[in-house]
Design a protein that fits this description.
The complex is a heterodimer of chains A (about 950) and B (about 140). Chain A is α/β, with parallel strands linked by helices. Chain A has 28 helices and 34 strands. Chain A has a five-stranded parallel β-sheet, with helices on both faces. Chain A has a five-stranded antiparallel β-sheet with strand order 7-6-10-9-8, with helices on both faces. Chain A is rod-shaped. The chains are: A alpha/beta (about 950), B alpha/beta (about 140). The interface between A and B is medium-sized, with 32 and 25 residues.
Chain lengths: ~950, ~140
């Protein structure tokens, strides 16, 4: 305060008086001027005047008398206040009680000066002016602050990020800007504030306390994330950052914070985490899949990895039980999860098959249930699942070769976890798993196959081995040691060729050389050294595998067979030799007979010729007695000639040289001729010839001479053995459509049963006494039989001793020109099995058959084209073509159309399905009596009637 | 002039018998006991018929027949084999060697002449009948 203002510097002062006393005004002015104020003034006595004045002039001070006629000084003050006019107001009054004064000051009056103490007025004015100046300054400052605050507010209101204030006391929202309101879906901050309590847009107490504790020091930035729900119900993740405000005492008041919506960023991060987890699952599972060969372990590990690496609540894998069709738990993580106890899942159409797992198996594709709480298909399991905080589930089929065998189920704690991308990754996992299972399955099958083959390898009676291309055996089965005695180590220690008999070694070396060129060995027989020093006959086949440098070989011990074959071969040779010897002997017999008959006939030529000359008297007559003797010589010689001719005929028949000249003739005529010749002899014994002729068979085509011979033999025989007054009947009857029957019945001595068998055998008369009594060559009936049979007929006799005999001959009505003779039957044996072939051949040979053997269809057909056989035995399983094909081809040959064929096979007849008719069928091994019985049944006895085409 | 016949036979008795029988029939008969003699005779003698025994010492009758059949001067000579062999192959062999007929020994003295004459008269081959080999 300046008590003495500078004289030279007067203080301008504009004063408005509310005073009616001009003296008082003058006094005041004087006082003021003397106090160095340059005073100008106006004065008024009514409120209205004052109002007019203050509105036009900027007064520095109003000096008002308290008591005025129109109004009091306080009335004026109130008016000023109400008019908003803020001019320093000093009451200048005669007297004012202290209480009143205090009251006025309280009202805002700047000061009061008593009229009797005007000296204080300058001081009061100065102070009032100072106060006014300060007040104006303050008001200006306040104004500026107000403006600044407004602009700040506006800045906050229009900021693009959310700005807010939260109560530090209870975390409720105190204030917000537009951006936050919009972020949270409200129309305005006010709207937001109104709704915030209901929507829990606030800090939860624990968040609040952690935030406030965290920022002990003032000014430190605090931050945190909250999840607030938008007005539309969606959740937002909001990041808050700001500071805590405290009051003067340091107690927290509120928090000013900036809010940022990080929901999208959070989601993206979340996503990346999810993907990382899933990739981690794929990676680890891939490792396990590559490493594990045990499916149970694989399942367990994969479930563990899904849960541990993938952060899922649970994973389990079930496989379909083949018999029940239900899914059986194979592995789960966590293990022994209660949820899985008693869980029934089927891929069927029932409700328990409608869940994601059942459907995934049924439809062979993944099935997702992204919200367990809402999906009706999860009804059977929902309660249990939710209790375990399973919120979504996905099931993936496990398939082998695209055939589902089970499912992998994965449970997540999050709703909507299984989006397309996640599921695609898990699909990949299950595809890998399926692939691994296929691999394991394939490996298991291969292992099983290999085990089985190992079993066979060990069991095989045949010797099996794998050698390298140089002939060192790499692997061999136990059969080698059993057969040869060498241990496996001994066998592998040297090339196998070293053990081959020197005579067979070249063949072995050739085979080894062939392996090098990839040549397969189909059949090699060689002698192989055994440990006991002997040689075994082995037969083997082998295939080289050049890419691996190995040879696979299978070898059998055929020593026994070889020995047997050798025996059979020598037996066959013996038999052949015997055959040849018999044939030679037979030929010699025939030649001998021919020669002997020649040698005998030559002298008989002379004897008979000359005795005839003598007897006939061509060279002069003889006396009666010599002529009788010449006659006897001639008769004896003629008998001898008959014998010789008989023998000759027999040998001709044996040799097949008897000729027949069939001609048309009447049998009755021949009977007449022959009975005519013998009628003299019959008349001597007073025997009557009778004839009974069936005219239907009278005319036949037959060799007349041979027929005459037959009839002559029968008749002369009958005459010989029939006593005087006997009766002989010659009958001609029909035997069949193609044959006729000649019978000669007598009333002779008859023949006993045992003798009948010997009747037709050459040189057999029934007994010595008979021979003496009945002269004869003993060849007649034998010749008759041969002659008749040579024409395709047969002979026989019915006889009752003491009553008589009936001899008959059955002959063809039309005889073939070709003679029929009997020969050893020849059988063709077709069989590729050496042992079977040998057995059949031996049976046949030892039963008197001639045998030819062949091993293939081709050989058999060629042989049948060239030669005739009386029968064929046929194995249906031939190496080159089926037996029935051969049979059809043989049947197509003229000579073999009706040749009996006996199939001898190891198969059941039904299996063969023989399309061509065969005479008989036998099963191997064939029994001797069965085979010979069958041959006789089909009409092939060991000696067979033959028509030769000479 | 009677027909001329050469009989070739190594058995003297049979040769004699044949000659007697043929001469009784009025034939002119020459004899030879083996092939050499026969060839010797035939050098100067040209018979109408040769009765040829098959079995001869040295060259046999069939061989001799073959020789003669190669000589065209014997084209008009009949050769009939005369043999005690009575087997079919013998007859075939004889025919193959060039014989025109075949008569089996022992001969039937009562028909022999007629048989020979038949051959000569017909100059054709009589059927090869084995006249006495069967009853």
């Amino acid at each position: 305060m300046r008590s003495h203002p500078a004289a030279e510097e007067k203080i301008p002062l504009r004063v408005l008086f509310f005073e009616e006393s001009s003296e008082d005004i003058e006094l005041c002015l004087w006082t003021l001027r003397s106090a160095c104020f340059d005073v100008t003034c106006d004065a008024a006595v009514t409120l209205d005047e004052i109002l007019v004045l203050v509105r036009t002039t900027p007064y520095d001070v109003i000096l008002a008398d308290y008591r005025m006629p129109s109004a009091t000084g306080m009335d004026l003050f109130d008016l000023m206040r109400s008019e908003g006019i803020d001019i320093p107001f000093i009451l200048v009054t005669g007297s004012l009680g202290d209480e009143m004064a205090v009251e006025c000051l309280k009202q805002g009056v700047s000061d009061y000066v008593l009229k009797d103490r005007l000296a204080r007025l300058p001081v009061a004015i100065r102070r009032a002016r100072e106060d006014a100046r300060l007040k104006a300054e303050r008001s200006r400052a306040e104004e500026m602050l107000r403006a600044s605050e407004a602009s700040y507010r506006s800045l906050i209101q229009s900021a693009p990020c959310g700005v807010l204030r939260l109560s530090a006391e209870d975390g409720r929202l105190l204030d917000s800007n537009m951006a936050l309101a919009v972020m949270l879906g409200y129309e305005s901050p006010a709207d937001l504030l109104k709704g915030s309590a209901g929507a829990s847009i606030s800090l939860a107490p624990q968040v609040l306390s952690s935030l406030t504790e965290e920022c002990g020091e003032a000014g430190r930035v605090i931050e945190g994330e909250v999840q607030w729900r938008r007005k539309d119900g969606t959740d937002l993740l909001i990041r808050l950052a700001g500071r805590l405000l405290r009051d003067d005492q340091g107690a927290p008041t509120c928090m000013e914070m900036i809010a940022e919506n990080v929901t999208a960023r959070y989601r993206a991060q979340n996503r990346i985490q999810q993907l990382n987890r899933l990739y981690s699952v794929l990676f680890h599972a891939g490792e396990v899949i590559a490493r594990t060969r045990d499916s149970a372990l694989l399942f367990r590990e994969v479930c563990r990895i899904i849960v541990e690496e993938g952060g899922f609540r649970m994973a389990w894998l079930g496989l379909l039980e083949t018999d029940t069709g239900e899914l059986t738990l194979c592995a789960s993580c966590p293990e022994k999860e209660e949820y899985l106890a008693g869980l029934h899942v089927t891929p069927g159409p029932e409700p328990k098959g409608q869940g994601p797992i059942g459907r995934s198996i049924r439809e062979n594709r993944h099935v997702v249930c992204n919200d367990l709480s809402g999906d009706p298909s999860m009804a059977p399991w929902r309660e249990r699942a939710l209790r375990r905080h399973f919120r979504s589930v996905a099931a993936f089929p496990i398939a082998i070769h695209d055939r589902p065998i089970g499912a992998l189920s994965i449970y997540a704690a999050e709703v909507n976890f299984f989006d397309d991308e996640n599921v695609a990754l898990l699909d990949e996992l299950t595809a890998d798993l399926s692939f691994a299972l296929e691999g394991i399955e394939t490996e298991r099958m291969r292992q099983r196959l290999s085990d089985e083959l190992d079993q066979f390898f060990a069991l095989s009676l045949d010797m099996l081995c794998i050698s390298d291309l140089r002939g060192y055996i790499q692997r061999l089965n136990p059969a080698w040691e059993k057969t040869l005695g060498f241990s496996a180590a001994e066998m592998c220690s040297r090339p196998w060729v070293d053990c081959v008999h020197p005579d067979d070694r070249q063949a072995a070396l050739d085979a080894v050389a062939g392996f090098d060129k990839g040549v397969e060995l189909t059949h090699l027989e060689l002698r192989f050294l055994a440990k006991d020093g002997s040689y075994k006959w082995l037969v083997g086949s082998a295939t080289p595998a050049l890419d691996r440098g190995l040879v696979f070989a299978a070898v059998s011990d055929v020593t026994e067979r070889k020995v047997l074959e050798e025996q059979l071969r020598s037996q066959n040779l013996q038999l052949e030799q015997q055959n040849r010897n018999i044939e030679a002997a037979s030929r010699m017999k025939t030649e001998f007979l021919a020669n002997m008959s020649h040698e005998l006939r030559s002298p008989l030529n002379g004897i008979i010729g000359f005795t005839e000359l003598l007897y006939d008297g061509k060279l002069g007559g003889l006396s009666e007695r010599p002529r009788e003797f010449v006659g006897r010589i001639h008769a004896s010689a003629s008998h001898l000639l008959k014998l010789i001719n008989g023998v000759l005929d027999l040998s001709k028949i044996e040799a097949g040289h008897l000729e027949f000249h069939p001609e048309r003739l009447f049998v009755s005529q021949v009977i007449r001729e022959v009975t005519g010749i013998l009628s003299g002899l019959a008349a001597e014994k007073q025997i009557q010839f009778e004839t009974e002729i069936d005219a239907a068979v009278d005319e036949v085509v037959i060799d007349a001479g041979r027929f005459r011979q037959v009839l002559y033999n029968y008749l002369s025989n009958a005459l010989k053995f029939t006593g005087e007054n006997g009766r002989i009947v010659v009958r001609l009857k029909s035997e069949s459509d193609t044959e006729f029957r000649l019978e000669v019945s007598d009333t002779g001595i008859g023949i006993s049963e045992p003798d009948i068998a010997r009747l037709f055998v050459e040189f057999q008369q029934l007994d010595a006494t008979t021979a003496k009594r009945y002269q004869g060559t003993g060849l007649g009936l034998a010749l008759t039989k041969r002659i008749v049979e040579a024409q395709g007929g047969h002979v026989g006799v019915d006889s009752t001793p003491g009553v008589g005999s009936t001899f008959f001959a059955i002959l063809p009505r039309v005889a073939s020109k070709a003679p029929v003779h009997y020969d050893v039957a020849r059988i063709l044996v077709v069989d590729d099995q050496a042992l079977d072939r040998a057995l059949i051949a031996r049976i046949l040979q030892s039963n008197g058959y001639l045998v030819e053997t062949v091993t293939t269809s081709h050989e058999a057909y060629e042989k049948c084209q060239r030669e005739g056989f009386d029968a064929i035995t046929l194995d249906m399983l031939l190496p080159d073509s089926p037996g029935w094909e051969l049979l059809a081809k043989i049947r197509s040959l003229e000579d073999h159309r009706n040749t009996p064929v006996i199939v001898i096979s190891s198969c059941d007849r039904a299996d063969l399905g023989i399309p061509v008719n065969v005479e008989s069928y036998l099963t191997k091994p064939v029994r001797p009596d069965e085979l010979t019985g069958t041959l006789i049944r089909v009409g092939v006895p060991k000696r067979i009637k033959k028509v030769t085409n000479e | 002039m009677s027909d001329s016949i050469l009989v070739v036979d190594d058995n003297a008795d049979n040769l004699e018998l044949t000659q007697i029988l043929l001469e009784c029939e009025g034939f002119e008969v020459r004899r030879a006991e083996d092939a050499a003699q026969a060839l010797f005779v035939l050098a100067t003698y040209h018979p109408k018929l040769i009765l040829m025994d098959v079995q001869l010492p040295g060259m046999d009758g069939l061989e001799l027949t073959r020789r003669l059949r190669q000589d065209s001067s014997f084209d008009d000579t009949l050769i009939v084999a005369l043999s005690a062999y009575a087997m079919a192959p013998e007859k075939e062999n004889a025919r193959a060697a060039g014989c025109d007929g075949y008569i089996t020994k022992p001969i039937d003295t009562r028909t022999f002449g007629t048989e020979v004459r038949q051959y000569l008269n017909s100059l054709a081959r009589a059927p090869l009948v084995d006249s006495r080999s069967s009853e």
